[in-house]
Amino acid sequence: MSNHAFYLWGAYGVTFAALALEVFFLIRRVRKSEAKA
Amino acid sequence: MNAAVKWFWYSSPQTFYPLAGTIARWCAVAAALAAVAGLYVGFFVAPTDAQQGEVYRIIFIHVPAAWMSMFIYVVMAFWAALGLAFNTRLSGMMARALAPTGALFTFIALWTGSLWGKPTWGTYWVWDARLTSELILLFLYFGFMALQASIDDVRRADRAGALLAIVGVVNVPIIYYSVQWWNTLHQGASVSFTKAPSMAAAMFAGMILMALAFWLYSIAVALVRVRCLILERQ
To answer: Which partner from B34, B42, B127, B193 sits 20 to 30 angstroms from B203, CA to CA?
Structure first.
């Protein structure tokens, strides 16, 4: 595991960070569009 | 109310808005549960691969993300075509709502594939048919979003985007069959509709659970984005 940890956690880390960012920006957009409506 | 009337009833953005909210909530909860189950099976139940060691566990996100990248594009092109043919407002919104998530899964498939490739192939990237056609898919998503963002009139933007989505859908079978049509470094499909999976049952279960999680997640975020588009276009 130790010599491949960078690849494994690099893959999982970026994936979940990207999904979390999408959810974060979506929630921000929901609040903005609901406030305008 | 018969089925045909219900179909038209929910094709109106105003009536679809509350339904989308309900479906999105349920899908978000189900996606979280499926992801927890998939990660548990992937990390604690599935055995270590004899040849690749622990790094093979990247496939639990790489393969489902690659499936989603292609599937979302086909669904996006379907909605875009429907909007173009019947001039329905909701269809264009559905296509527009799916594009960012499709692009995200394409990026994840490329990123995780690259991190899997380095320890197993000895390189992060090769210009083989599978990798190159997947990269083209990412550019198609970017092109679709950029084209729609560049046109102020949303109905015209939907129509222009629809044409690009429909033309670009030809890339999906190219991605899928690239490993059969060309001599690629990327291995062939481990899972197909016609053959038994060429991997341990626990590995297969982990991958399917993660695919289900990504699928439910995509439905949830796309529906929430559609709700935003409905409010923004009012």
So the answer is: B127
